[in-house]
Amino acid sequence: MNRSEISALAERAKQGDSAAFEQLYTEFRSQVYYFCKRCVGSESAAEDLTSETFIDAMEKIGSLRSGAAFSGWLYAIAYNKCSDHLRSNDRSEVAATPEQLSEAALNAPLLLPDDYAINAETRAQLQSIIDGLSPDQRSAVIMYYYDEMSVSEVAEAMGTNENNVSQKLHRARKKIRAQIEKLIGKGAMFGAVPMRALLGELDTSTVGIAAAGAAAIAVGIPYGLSKASGGTARELLWITRKYWAKHKKSLAALLFSGVLLCAVVTCIFLNGRRDFITGLDHNYDLSGRQTFMITDDHKEVIDFVSKEDTVRGEVAVLGRTGIGKNTFEYAVLDDPENLAHLPIESGRLPEKEGEIAIYRSVLNVFGFFGSVGESITLDTGTYTLVGILHDEEFTYRNLSRLYIEQVYNGDVFGPGTDSFKHYFPMIFVGGDAGKAPEYSYILLDNVKYVSIPDKDLEDHDSFKDDFSIIVRDADESVFTDDNDGSYNNWAYYAVWGGIWSFRAENHKIMPLYIVAALISSLSVLAVMRNIFAEREDTVRMLRRIGVSKRRIRVMYTIEYLCLAGIQTVIGIALGSAAHLGICAYRTSVMGYKDFTGFTPNELSSWIMPNPFIAGASVGAAVLLAGYLTAALLSRVKAPSRKKKKAAALWRCFGRVFRTRAVTVIQTLSLALICFGTIYGYMLFHSTEGSFDPETGEFHELISTEFGQNRQFSFDEDGVEEYYSASEVKTAGSGSFLFALHSEHFDGIGDSDADSLEGITAHGNIPHTFIVADSGSKLKNSITYGSAEEKQFFIDHSSEEGKALLNSGKALYKSPVALADIGTINELSQYVTSGEINADKLNSGEEVLLVVRYGNAPLAASDTVTVGAADTDNGFGISKLTQSDTKIGAVVVLPKSMDRILRYSVSEGDDYNLLTTASGAEALGLAGARYTELFAKEALGNSLPLGTGFTLYSYAQQRREIFLRNASFYGSMGALVLVMSLLGFSAYFNGIGLKIRLKEYQISIMRAVGTPIKRLRRRLTLDSIRLPLISGTMAYGGIKAMQLMMLAANNRADKLANEARIAFNELSEISSAADHGYTPELLSKINAVNDIQARETDVRVYFMTDKMMLFMNALIPTLTIFAVMCIVTILLTRKSFRMFTPDIAGALARGRKRR
Amino acid sequence: MIKTENLTRTYGKGEGKVTALDGVSLTINDGEMVAIIGKSGSGKSTLLNLIGGLDKPTEGRIFYNDKEIGSMKDSELSEFRLKNVGFVFQFFDLIPELTAEENVLLPSRLAKNKDAGADELYKALDIGDRVKHYPSELSGGQQQRAAIARALINSPDVILCDEPTGNLDRASGEEVMALLKRLNTEQGRTVIIVTHDRGIAEQCGRIIEISDGKIV
């Protein structure tokens, strides 16, 4: 409320408007209370006095002269009340002698300890100082400073004259200042703070604190500088302004480096923030929570999470549908908000009954190629497709996939390893949730971030880094399962794992950022050094006419602050713009989610510094370092060389041209550019592909090759598109592998394949074997590992399995491959014995033996027993199939045969059995379905719904390759460009500076008869030396890094080995302990965990990446070296052009400069 | 009155120790015009720098009217120089980024001396039409006149000149000397000139000759 409003209100109150008085009361109540409290010191008395004041005011409002005088009048009443109160307590103030004081003096800032706004103790002390003033002084101070009344108003309020008030204020100030100085000691850091800010501060909110702090800085710095300069700050600023106006190029160079540095740092931190947010979103809600799915088998977990305050929603699963043998689960959503974060590719989430949104991949699996708005029929009914969800790698969240966690009996679905990951076909059906669900899934969504108390940190080394996540219930007690606390651990590791992998990625990229920052810093240093060298004369002249050292320092400080300010503002703007540009590119071209570093997220500000503060402070720090280094270097004198003997001309040149500091900066910046570029190159390769240390070949992540073993190429084999279904998953122990019974298997049968014209179909069932009496010539016999392992297997097997394993018969690994009959017929040209008979193959009467390498172990018409085993849990044999069949024909594959045909048999095996899907089914083998179909052209859209195939297309693959390459080369190019701009600017600046600084020397040498050719040669060689040293340094750096990684890798391997040994011991102890935890067991568990944690740490912190370990850095180094040399030669030549035949002129100029 | 007592200044140490000034005691009265002459390396510039407070003596004391300047702190000494001493150097030492006028006014701005009477100075020194130019655009004589104007702007009592004509042609040199003499005779300022040129020295009221750091 401003003065005129108050005035108007007071006028209305004077007319008897009680509502107006009430408003005034609201407005002034706390101020008057504060005033009284400060006057009398006691809260209860202040309350009484406040109410008395307002009662008096209400009664006497008629006597108010005018509305404008209200506040003074009100305070007069309050003051009188307080005086009466104090008088009754017998406290008074002796009048002081009159003194002329201006208002300006009263408002001069007070010097306060610079931490007063944040340090509670200091604040309390200041409070007590103000409380220690005499009552009159206190009243005057509060009215004047806190309530912002003018001196005359205060005088009126206190019933005295203005002089008297000024005097009181002056004395109070003096007293406060003296007390503060006494309290803090003279040596303390002081910030100048306006009295108003101080008073408002001491009793108000944090906003007040921030404002006062800002005011302290805003007022304190100029005030302090002005004071330090003896009031000539303006003149000093003027001198530097004049300097920069005449040296715009240097200013531009300096600002360029500083701004880029600031921008780079800001951009880096913004990118880091975005990556973190993206990572969070990838794995968790943006709030840092993770969604887990738990089946209703686990009543105790569900009970725990079902508490109202821990559960955020639930998904009821309606039922199942079968697509081929593939089963999907449909979900009904009771709270769509839970899924608001799901990535929508087109359309929206369902809102009404009969609407549905489906993942793109699931639609692919259905063979549905329509778009939003069309209707789709599932076995539960017909729905309108209102949304298609995005399920690219970088956008899915756990919720969208089903993870099978085997460790806990498959009851808990949590993040598992990649090989156990399947799409969970979230089909969101809006509306009717009334149907009885077959299963109910609860979303556990109550994982909180908690900070760990220090004492806990001591116990858990692995918590030390940032923070950890623990599942807690409403009472903050940690939830643990009755048995072993596995849910808690599991939740902890699940969430922690995400943060950890983010850190691992960050660790890798960090050196690159550091290099970029270092290069920009060097650039700033180089320019600063240059500027200082140029300015030495000016400073000397200033000193001569009577400018003290302190003023020179103040001058530089002012300049520094101005430059830092400009650089920060432009740098942050530029960095943010660059970041947003990158994000826009990622969103629009790459199709990533539209997160930026500005996306609000409380965790990101917790885990990493504010990008703007980081950018500003790094920029400012480097500039400051530039100033300090330059100042120091300008004082360092060249070491005495008296004792050196008379040198050869060559050495004389060397001495003349060596400007040590500049050379160091040049060398370092070149080395850093070199290092950064090579490192970036290695980083790209290590993240975007895989490296084979044996062959030294690098395989790109995305290739145009495809198929199970990447043995086909879109290009060479002329395949436009193909369909593929997931492979059968394996589980097992030792070398004995079984198909998991619970695995679903996608594919189509022979009859379907035959109905599709021109199709080539392939598939295989790897977990089949041949049962033979011992003594067979068959190779690859299956072993059971150790005797214990075999026993374990037998124990976990069905009666059938036990009988087989105990029968003494040998089992030989021989996967069964599947192909459609057309493909099989094409193989007939390679038949060496026997004959292919389609009918016998389909009936299971015969199979083919395909030999890839070596001799055929069986002949046509031999009888073999083909076995296949199923297992429920990966241990033992649950179900066994054994069938006798005959080898119909032996096919020996030549190397020259069509690659797609060759693909129809198992890669990597010497021989295998081949039959049709119908034949495999007839033999009773599980999962007899094709897995890949080629020649989509022939299929058109006739592929039956629910065949469970995923479409791969050459065009799509190519687009991805193009985009990845474009963005990689784009970003690498941009990074190298920025680094080079900065690094080379430091380097070139160095060359320029050297030649300019040495102009005089060069002139002298020319004057005494040294040909310029010789000088040029000398200087060029001198400059080439730098790239050479830098290249060597960078190469050495990379090699050192690789050695470090290698050492770390070995250490990690050693730890892994230790962990394995410890784990074995643990197993022994735990089997001996039977049930329950013995102290020995517990300590062993801890030891194993500890070793494993250390191993992970080593791998994260030392970026032990296979690729980076073996990458050869020599060739890139040489390339960069060559480029640097060429640039250097060109540049030195160019610099030499400035030397004219006019030696006398150059000498005169040089002399003058000196 | 300027008085030095046993002024000694040495550089370096050990074998390489050089005594530039060796126990010089002299007194210069207010209003005097003194020439200090001597050969190169005799210590005359060192003496001038010490008197002007640009350098500190190894031993001995310097008094300005009983005020000892050797013991002053850097900031006090700078302030003292700014207000009481005007320097004129052989190489003018004008700040290249400032115009002649800005150079001249710089000391007055620093000393917060608003009413400096620069215009009269320009008139007296005959550089009024060149004051907006940068030093690089002025001739040697003009630069030296600007430097003198700068030395005079704060009306110092003492003007110290280090080879003021050393870098000037004869005509300009004579003009500068005439100017300095006028300052001495008309305004009664103390002028101390370091030179190796006897002709210049003889225009001064008193000649102090220095050889090997000692007054001869």
Count of beta strands of chain A? 34
> Please, what is the CATH homologous superfamily of chain B?
P-loop containing nucleotide triphosphate hydrolases
The strand order across the widest sheet of chain B is 6-7-8-3-9-10
Number of domains of chain B: 1
- Rg value of chain A: 41 Å
Q: Largest contact between protein chains?
A: A-B, 26 and 28 residues
Instruction: State the order of secondary-structure elements of chain B, H for helix, E for strand.
Output: EEEHEEHEHHHEHEHEE
Net shape of chain B: globular
* Total helical segments of chain A: 38
Portion in beta strands of chain A: 5-15%
| Main sheet makeup of chain A | 14 strands, mixed
Residue stretches of chain B low in confidence (pLDDT < 50, at least 5 long) are: none
Range of helix content of chain A: 40-55%
Number of domains of chain A: 5
What is the overall silhouette of chain A?
extended
Per CATH, the architecture of chain B is 3-Layer(aba) Sandwich
Largest sheet of chain B: 6 strands, mixed
